[in-house]
TrEMBL record:
<feature type="domain" description="4Fe-4S ferredoxin-type">
    <location>
        <begin position="131"/>
        <end position="160"/>
    </location>
</feature>
<protein>
    <submittedName>
        <fullName>4Fe-4S dicluster domain-containing protein</fullName>
    </submittedName>
</protein>
<keyword id="KW-0408">Iron</keyword>
<keyword id="KW-0479">Metal-binding</keyword>
<dbReference type="InterPro" id="IPR017896">
    <property type="entry name" value="4Fe4S_Fe-S-bd"/>
</dbReference>
<keyword id="KW-0004">4Fe-4S</keyword>
<feature type="domain" description="4Fe-4S ferredoxin-type">
    <location>
        <begin position="99"/>
        <end position="129"/>
    </location>
</feature>
<dbReference type="Pfam" id="PF00037">
    <property type="entry name" value="Fer4"/>
</dbReference>
<feature type="domain" description="4Fe-4S ferredoxin-type">
    <location>
        <begin position="41"/>
        <end position="69"/>
    </location>
</feature>
<dbReference type="Pfam" id="PF13247">
    <property type="entry name" value="Fer4_11"/>
</dbReference>
<dbReference type="InterPro" id="IPR050954">
    <property type="entry name" value="ET_IronSulfur_Cluster-Binding"/>
</dbReference>
<keyword id="KW-0411">Iron-sulfur</keyword>
<dbReference type="InterPro" id="IPR017900">
    <property type="entry name" value="4Fe4S_Fe_S_CS"/>
</dbReference>
Length: 236
């Protein structure tokens, strides 16, 4: 619960639909320019399909041997109501859950990653082969600079290793053996899609060409690789 509270700032720019998201600091995105000769791994979270079951989080914890009480990802639940205004369904002005939806909170795998920039030892770095932001445990001094620099509150110190941790798409667990990230494998509702957006034939590339998606806090210039397909109300 404490982790959920400290990361709620992350959710302020996610609304009920793309019409709500834009004024809050998110925007529609087209494919960013990157070196086409190298992979650019990204993940799409489809808010329309997520039921908040939490199985993705459990799979992540198991695959990456995370200590109890810590996770590389969180599933936040919030309603689509506007604070202070009555719910159009039940009339309540307090959170009622009539339009419950869930949001994935995790490392955004930024193309311009502040955590990498501020790390004094090179522990927070971009994997040379995949381009994924990850950690070199042998180099981490536990200074927490990367945690302070992350505008998404998505990093933490693993108390068992004393090393800063983040979602790296299961780089050293699942990807290392040719599998998809644990959360993607576990999601039974296809709410998570992972792949190389520099490959025009990949499913994720095809999906992003036909679906509107958003990124969190685009004004920061971090260019996140985690994309969100927001809930769009039919008839609006």
């Amino acid at each position: 619960m404490s982790e959920n509270i400290e990361r709620r700032r992350f959710l302020k720019c996610l609304g009920a639909s793309s019409l709500i998201i834009a004024p809050l600091g998110c925007s529609s995105v087209k494919e960013g320019e990157s070196d086409p000769n190298k992979p650019h791994y990204a993940m799409v979270f489809d808010q329309n399909k997520c039921t908040g079951c939490g199985e993705c989080k459990e799979a992540c914890n198991l695959a990456n041997n995370l200590p109890e009480g810590k996770s590389r990802l969180l599933m936040e639940q919030h309603s689509g109501g506007i604070e202070g205004q009555p719910c159009p369904h039940c009339g309540k002005t307090t959170e009622c859950g009539c339009e419950r939806k869930f949001v994935r909170v995790s490392c955004q795998q930024c193309k311009n990653a502040p955590c990498v920039t501020v790390c004094p030892t090179g522990a927070a770095h971009r994997d040379e082969k995949t381009g994924i932001v990850t950690m070199d445990a042998a180099k981490c001094a536990g200074c927490k600079y990367c945690i302070a620099a992350c505008p998404y509150d998505a990093r933490f110190i693993n108390k068992e290793t004393d090393v800063a941790d983040n979602c790296d798409f299961c780089l050293n667990s699942k990807l290392a053996i040719g599998e998809l990230p644990a959360c993607v494998q576990k999601c039974r509702y296809d709410a998570l899609i992972f792949g190389d957006i520099n490959d025009p034939t990949s499913y994720i590339s095809k999906l992003l060409r036909v679906k509107d998606s958003v990124r969190v806090k685009p004004g920061f210039g971090t260019e996140p690789s985690l994309r969100y397909i927001p809930i769009v109300k039919l008839g609006v």
